[in-house]
Amino acid sequence: MKPIQVGLLGIGVVGAGTFNVLKRNQEEIQRRAGRGIAITMVADLDVARATEIVGPDVKVVNDARAVIANPDIDIVIELIGGYGIAKTLVLEAIAAGKHVVTANKALLAVHGTEIFAAASAKGVMVAFEAAVAGGIPIIKALREGLTANRIQWIAGIINGTTNFILSEMRDKGLDFSVVLKEAQRLGYAEADPTFDIEGVDAAHKVTLMSAIAFGIPVQFDKAYVEGITKLGAADIKYAEQLGYRIKLLGITKRTAKGVELRVHPSLIPSKRLIANVEGAMNAVVVNGDAVGNTLYYGKGAGSEPTASAVIADLVDVTRLHTADAAQRVPHLAFQPGSMSDAPVLPMGDVVTSYYLRLRVADQAGVLAKVTGILAEANINIDAVLQREADEVGGEGGAATVPQTDLIILTHDCVEANMNAAIAQMQALPTVLAPIVRIRKEELA
Questions:
Q1: Which of 62, 99, 181, 390 has a CA positioned 20 to 30 A from the CA of residue 434?
Q2: Residue pLDDT tens, the chain, 444 long
Q3: Residue 87's domain spans which residues?
Q4: How would you class 77 by CB atoms within 10 Å of its CB: exposed for 0-12, middle for 13-18, buried for 19 or more?
Q5: What CATH number is associated with residue 80?
Q6: Does a structural domain hold residue 344?
Q7: 296 beta partners
Q8: Which SS3 state, helix, strand or coil, does residue 291 take?
C-alpha cells in the first residue's frame, strides 16, 4: 500500500521537528499505522530555508493553497498559528476533503465550533493533540482513555513560561518583573509574552479540554482569565509558610449550576504532586468518578515533544482514513447530536476558597473589623497569619505608621460574596494598600 501523503503548512520549529521525527522513526511509525506516512509537500514563505530542512525529494512552495489543491495530498498539517489565514486555510482544506492535523489551540478555542461542524459535514477529521500540553497525550486520554468516566474536574499547569517564572520566583525570592526578564533572556518567554503571562494561552487550552470533558461547545469568550503579573515575592513566601505553592492553573469543573471555566493563579497544597511541577514542565490532573485522580506530566512545548503529538494524530488519521465517518471518535468526544447545553458560569457564581493579604496599620481592633466583614458576608476563616510588613519584603516602603501583613485563608464561598467583602475591607482607613486575593484549590 502506498504511503499516505501529507502536506505541511509552515515549517518552523514544530514543523521541522515533525518532519525530522517522522523521517527518523518512519519504520516504527509504519508498523503502528499499517502504512507509510510521508510529508511530500511543504508550504512556507521562506522556500530556501524550507528546502534546506526537507531536502530535494519534497516539493516546497510558497503558496499554502497549492498544497490544499493537490489531489494527491490526503492530510494537511496546519502549523501557521493564529486566528487569521490559518482559519481560512483549515476551512479550505476541509472543503477540499482533506483531513486536518493542527497544533493551533487559539484557532480551535475561538473558532472550533465552526471548524468541527464543517469537518463533520464533509466527513473528514480534525485532530489536535498537539494543541494542548505539547507532547502530553491529554486529548487522547480525555476523548478515549477516560470515556467510561463522568469527569468531575480538570486542573492543569498548561503554560511552561508562567510555570518557569513562578518556580524561579519561589526558589530565588525575586519579584515577577525581574524573573520575566531572565525568562526572556533564556528563551522561555517571548519578546512579547502577553499571551503567556496574562493567562490567554492557558485559557485557550483549558477551553478545549472543558469541551471534551463535558461535551459542551468550545466557548473561549466565556472563560475567566487572570494572569500572574500582579503576583509578588511576598505572597509566594507566605504561601510556602502556610504549606502551599502558587501555580497558574487552568481549571474546569462540573457543578449543579453549570461548568466552571477559569484560569488564574492558585494556591495548591505543597503535598499535591502537581504543586511540585517545576520549571517549564506541564501537568494536568483529571478527576473522574470511576478512576479518581489521574495525573499527566511532561514537556508542554518544544520542537520534538510537540512533533510527537502531531505525528500521533497523523497515525490516528491514517488508521481511520478509510473508516466510515460515523465510526470515528467524535472531535469533542461526544456525538455531535448529544452535546450538552450546560452554561459556563460567570466568575461571580464560582465557589472556591481564598488567600487574602491585607497590608494594615498595626493597631488594636483591625483584625476584629476585618473578620467581622467576612462573617457578615458568610465567609468562614480557615487560618490567620500575621507578619511584620518588612519581614519578607513587599510594597510597604518607608512606613509613616507601624504596618503589618494580615494573611487570611478562607473556606469555600461564592466569589460574588468575596468581591463584596473585599470592597468593604478595602474601604477601611486602616487598610493601607490594595488587598491581594488569590484563589485556593485543594484538588483533593
A1: 181
A2: 889 999 999 999 999 999 999 999 999 999 999 999 999 999 999 999 999 999 999 999 999 999 999 999 999 999 999 989 999 999 999 999 999 999 999 999 999 999 999 999 999 999 999 999 999 999 999 999 999 999 999 999 999 999 999 999 999 999 999 999 999 998 889 999 999 999 999 999 999 999 999 999 999 999 999 999 999 999 999 999 999 999 999 999 999 999 999 999 999 999 999 999 999 999 999 999 999 999 999 999 999 999 999 999 999 999 988 778 878 899 998 998 899 999 999 999 999 999 999 999 999 999 999 999 999 999 999 999 998 876 444 454 555 678 999 999 999 999 999 999 999 999 999 999 999 999 999 998
A3: 4-136+303-335
A4: buried
A5: 3.40.50.720
A6: no
A7: 284
A8: coil
Q: What whole-number distance in Å separates Cα of residue 444 and Cα of residue 440?
A: 12
Which cell numbers hold the place of 121?
459535514
Helix axes 105-122, 200-214, angle to 10 degrees: 30
Q: Is residue 197 included in any domain, yes or no? A: yes
Tell me, yes or no, whether 181 and 118 share the same domain.
Answer: no
**Per-residue CA distances from 118 to 6, 87, 94, 122, 170 (Å):** 20, 12, 7, 6, 46
What Rg value do the Cα atoms of the chain yield, rounded?
24
Burial (Cβ within 10 Å: 0-12, 13-18, ≥19) of residue 417: middle
Give the separation between CA 303 and CA 228, rounded to whole angstroms.
26
Residue 340 maps to a domain: no
Residues 382 and 327 in one domain: no
Contacts of 243 (CB under 8 A, 6+ apart): 269, 270, 271
* Same domain (yes/no): 123, 195: no
Catalytic residue among 98, 205, 237, 253: 205
pTM over 0.85, yes/no: yes
The Cα-based distances of 390 to 123, 234, 357, 386, 394 in angstroms read: 64, 10, 14, 12, 7
Q: For cell 490594595, what's the residue?
A: 434
d(CA 128, CA 117): 15
Supply φ then ψ for residue 150, to 5 degrees.
Answer: -90, 105
CATH of the domain at 263: 3.30.360.10
**Residues 231, 372: one domain?**
no
Q: Is 199 within 8 Å of 206 (Cβ atoms)? A: no
Active site residue 205: yes
